[in-house]
Amino acid sequence: QVQLQQWGAGLLKPSETLSLTCGVYGGSLSGYSLSWIRQPPGKGLEWIGEITQSGSTNYNPSLKSRVIISADRSKNQFSLRLSSVGAADTAVYYCSRGGLWWGQGTLVTVSS
Amino acid sequence: QSALTQPASVSGSPGQSIIISCTGTLSDVGGYNYVSWYQHHPGTAPKLMIYDVSTRPSGVSNRFSGSKSGNTASLTISGLQAEDEADYYCISYTTISTWVFGGGTKLTVL
């Protein structure tokens, strides 16, 4: 069965770069969109961006200037980089394959 | 892009049916049959309940159904059960090739 496991730093200082990786186990990266979603404390879900089935990337316009999503098919994993973070980027970050499979979530806190 | 509009909360008694609406524009909900619904219990990963407006993934109860009319999509849950109590989010594809979530609806089973 497909499982997603994500990892990365959970505590950042303002202006640093958030970096998370999502490993896909029991299945391929191919054939599905690969997405990142976040949920700030006490707020709703926010779509960050995706790598589509064709390999192109799409990003939330509000984050586009700071976000890069990439995939390493040799390692069967994909990653999120969000630069120049601030307190507003504090959230639980999730990776997802095709909307059906999700990582466990990573709480990222931005604090000086 | 603006978040889709969902009611903040809905409630129902066990056995009843409830409907959660998700209103967008012609640039998202109204323009594409790419609306999905997620069930989210706090502290866990969201679960896909409906995709492509009305399709249930394998394993999702047929008590959950989706529909769309114009710029508004709807999630209907029939035969409410205590375990259905959760937050529900809609998400839609948009004309600028992005996706946008609704603000979320807290379902309380009385």
The CA-CA distance between the termini of chain B, in Å, is 35 Å
Mean pLDDT score of chain A, rounded?
Answer: 97
What are the low-pLDDT stretches of chain B, counting only 5+ consecutive residues below 50? Answer: none
Number of strands of chain B: 9
- Element order of chain B: H for helix, E for strand: EEEEEEEEE
Q: Main interface pair?
A: A-B, 20 and 22 residues
Strand content of the residues of chain A, in percent? over 45%
Task: Identify low-pLDDT runs of chain A.
Answer: none
What is the helical fraction of chain A, as a range of percent? under 10%
Helix/strand order of chain A: EEEEEEEEEEE
**Overall 3D shape of chain A:** globular
The whole-angstrom Rg of chain A is: 13 Å
C-alpha Rg of chain B (nearest Å):
13 Å
Level of helix content of chain B?
under 10%
Q: Tell me the number of helical segments of chain A per DSSP (H or I, 4 or more residues long).
A: 0
Shape of chain B: globular
How far apart lie the N and C ends of chain A? 40 Å
Topology:
The complex is a heterodimer of chains A (112) and B (110).
Chain A: E1 3-8, E2 11-12, E3 18-25, E4 34-39, E5 46-51, E6 57-59, E7 67-72, E8 77-82, E9 91-97, E10 101-102, E11 106-110
Parallel strand pairs in A: 2-11
Antiparallel strand pairs in A: 1-3, 3-8, 4-5, 4-9, 5-6, 7-8, 9-10, 9-11
Chain B: E1 9-12, E2 18-23, E3 35-40, E4 47-50, E5 64-69, E6 72-77, E7 86-93, E8 99-101, E9 105-109
Parallel strand pairs in B: 1-9
Antiparallel strand pairs in B: 2-6, 3-4, 3-7, 5-6, 7-8, 7-9
